[in-house]
Design goal:
Bound molecules: NADP nicotinamide-adenine-dinucleotide phosphate
CATH architecture: 3-Layer(aba) Sandwich
Helix content: 40-55%
Order of helices and strands: EHEHEHEHEHEHHEHH
Strand content: 15-25%
């Protein structure tokens, strides 16, 4: 997709990867709608990108409807809004299970459902989903990993259905990224390795993938190796992951 002159809706645009993606898209000449729940931080991103803020809570039906209405009018939909949870599954509050499933998985599917018919009618468009390397399975993050794996399966299935050359579908799998994500989930990032990337690196890879219509992109690229290992020899991978973290 050529980006200049297009419109994009970015969810999670008030922070982290979504905000960095909004910056990169604005620099590429894209007109933006910026969705989040924090009006103040959305306004700050809107000021520097020229985008239009849309305050909507995708965890609620009314917020999701507002997001879907905006999605139906855009050339590019970037679903970055998401939350994590770290802790033993047996002690995870049931409402947090539902919250993660709604925000991380149901909301992107509903918004894609709203955006796709109009994109097909216009003869083009692109859907981008922020998944995670957590799709390989991560201790203490069972529900988060499941929502991100669900997003991968959804996007891969959709690509078959749409076929090449009409509407593009890209799934982005970041590793650890330096954003408020970890503080918000209630457990800071405490690993020495891999080192955290800056969100601008994810945004750069995302834009390159949209321009080239790439189905899946891992950031950093070497994360493709553990992801392939987990898919090809899962028993070995999980033994190694259990031993080395
Ligand atoms: N950081 C990482 O290491 C990492 C790694 C892999 C994948 N990811 C994924 O990348 C995406 C972006 O994460 P990030 O690191 O940029 O996190 P972040 O800085 O915490 O940003 C999360 C964004 O989601 C929005 N959001 C949260 N709840 C919402 C709701 N109910 N309705 C609407 N918007 C909501 C937030 O908006 P408000 O603050 O305005 O509510 C914020 O803009 C997420 O899907 C995450 O799972 C992150």
């Amino acid at each position: 997709m050529r980006l200049a002159g297009r419109t994009a809706l970015v969810t999670g645009a008030s922070s982290g990867i979504g905000a960095a993606t909004a910056d990169a898209l604005a620099a590429a000449g894209v007109k933006l709608v910026l969705l989040g729940t924090d009006g103040g931080r959305l306004d700050a991103v809107a000021d520097r990108t020229g985008g239009t803020p849309l305050v909507a809570d995708l965890g609620t039906e009314s917020g999701l409807r507002a997001g879907c209405e905006a999605a139906a009018e855009t050339d590019l939909l970037v679903c970055s809004a998401g939350r994590g949870y770290a802790g033993e599954f047996a002690a995870m509050p049931a409402e947090r299970v539902a919250e993660l499933a709604t925000l991380n998985l149901v909301a992107p599917m509903r918004m894609a459902r709203a955006a796709l018919p109009a994109m097909l009618a216009r003869g083009g468009g692109h859907l981008v989903f922020l998944s995670s390397i957590a799709t390989v399975g991560v201790r203490d993050e069972a529900v988060y990993a499941a929502t991100k794996a669900g997003l991968r399966a959804f996007a891969a299935s959709l690509r078959y259905e749409i076929g090449a050359g009409r509407v593009g579908v890209t799934t982005v799998f970041p590793g650890a990224v330096n954003t408020p994500f970890f503080d918000r989930r209630g457990r800071a990032y405490d690993r020495g390795f891999p080192r955290q990337l800056e969100p601008s690196a994810v945004a750069r890879a995302l834009l390159a993938a949209v321009r080239r219509d790439r189905p899946e992109v891992f950031v950093p690229r070497w994360l493709t190796v553990p992801a392939r290992l987990a898919g090809g020899v899962p028993e070995l991978f999980h033994r190694m992951a259990a031993r080395f973290g």
